[in-house]
Write a structure and sequence with these properties.
The chain is built from eleven helices and 13 strands. The strands form two sheets. Strands 1, 2, 3, 4, 5, 6, 7, 12 and 13 form a nine-stranded mixed β-sheet that branches.
């Protein structure tokens, strides 16, 4: 038996430029971090005395005779993608620190953790970059989902990174090299809230992708903000400029599609700003899920009180990426 642990991610700038339809023409870049909230997948070979061949536990409990019967699309296609068949029974259990479909890269964390775990089950190790590329292939090519390429890379690698997407298709991960005290100061000024709703991000992303050609100026501006944010982090100036830049980026993101935001999200955002936040954004494709705000320390109590109807989620930055946290050499004993 083994357990893979994969962090969720928080993206700050450049989202939208990580869609292949965009960056394979113009290139793109994203500034993001992973946080100490995780997707856990327990994997083992299913003992032969079970009447069914495979057991998959997520929001459903599936016991099936063949891989083709598995309802969870990433599990079904992931098993096929990695060459598993019905000659070997598999049991998978999913647990997450945060709800799925809420803008924290949960789908990609699942895909990355699934690939990491299934390969480890066969005694195979995989590098972080190859792991990310396999997850991108699973989601974009096999599942045909309308997703970008930033989440898979972010959660596979872990840490606070500049991720560059080149027109050649190459993806480059560059850790943000600023003093740890600077990142800790930023971390202490970020507040994460759950709006209490969820939606398949691929549905929203499909509308964003459809608008990419007509939103070229916006996307170039959003890409430029990645460089501006890096200059702020690497300077000795006030970090408040980072929060104000988040506000500018959110205003641009809202213009990408009519479903990026809604009246509820707008009300939450304006409430946070009235009580001291300098900027923020809805994480993920849009419309629902988690919101992050940059709030100077002296205003954080006021923002918490103003948003008391929402769940405040304390967090810290994660640096490890997807990993195997428990490994007991699997025993293959199939009949």
């Amino acid at each position: 038996m083994l357990i893979s642990r994969t962090p969720f991610r928080m993206s700050f700038f450049g989202g939208g430029t990580d869609y292949p339809t965009w960056y394979l023409k113009e290139g793109g870049a994203v500034l993001s971090t992973t946080i100490d909230k995780y997707c856990y997948l327990t994997c083992r070979y299913l003992p032969p005395f079970f009447t069914e061949r495979h057991r998959i536990v997520w929001s459903h409990i599936e016991t099936v005779s063949s891989i083709s019967e598995i309802l969870h699309p990433a599990v079904r296609e992931g098993l096929r993608f990695l060459g598993f068949d019905d000659s070997v029974g598999i049991e998978l259990h999913y647990e997450g620190d945060l709800p799925a479909r809420a803008g924290m890269g949960s789908s990609s964390a699942f895909s990355v953790g699934l690939i990491k775990g299934l390969l480890a089950l066969r005694g195979q190790m995989i590098g972080k970059h190859d792991l990310a590329l396999k997850a991108i292939a699973l989601e974009q090519e096999i599942l045909q989902e309308h997703v970008g390429s930033q989440d898979q890379v972010a959660v596979a690698h872990g840490g606070f990174n500049l991720i560059r997407f080149h027109a050649t298709g190459d993806i480059q991960v560059e850790p943000v090299t600023v003093p740890r005290s600077r990142l800790q100061a930023l971390e202490s000024r970020l507040m994460l809230f759950y709006t209490g709703t969820s939606r398949l991000s691929t549905e929203i992303a499909a509308t964003v992708v459809a608008n990419l050609e007509s939103k070229q100026t916006l996307l170039r501006q959003m890409r430029q903000m990645v460089d501006e944010a890096l200059l702020i982090l690497s300077s000795r100036d006030s970090l408040d400029a980072f929060g104000k830049l988040l506000h500018e980026a959110w205003m641009l993101k809202r213009a990408l599609s009519s479903v990026v935001t809604n009246a509820k999200i707008d009300d939450i955002y304006e409430t946070a700003l009235r009580h001291g936040a300098l900027g923020g954004k809805l994480l993920g494709a849009g419309s629902t899920g988690f919101m992050v705000f940059y709030v100077p320390p002296e205003h954080q109590t006021s923002v918490r009180q103003a948003l008391s109807s929402l769940l405040w989620v304390p967090f810290a930055f994660d640096r490890e990426g997807s990993t195997i946290i428990y490994y007991d050499e699997p025993t293959l004993n199939q009949s």
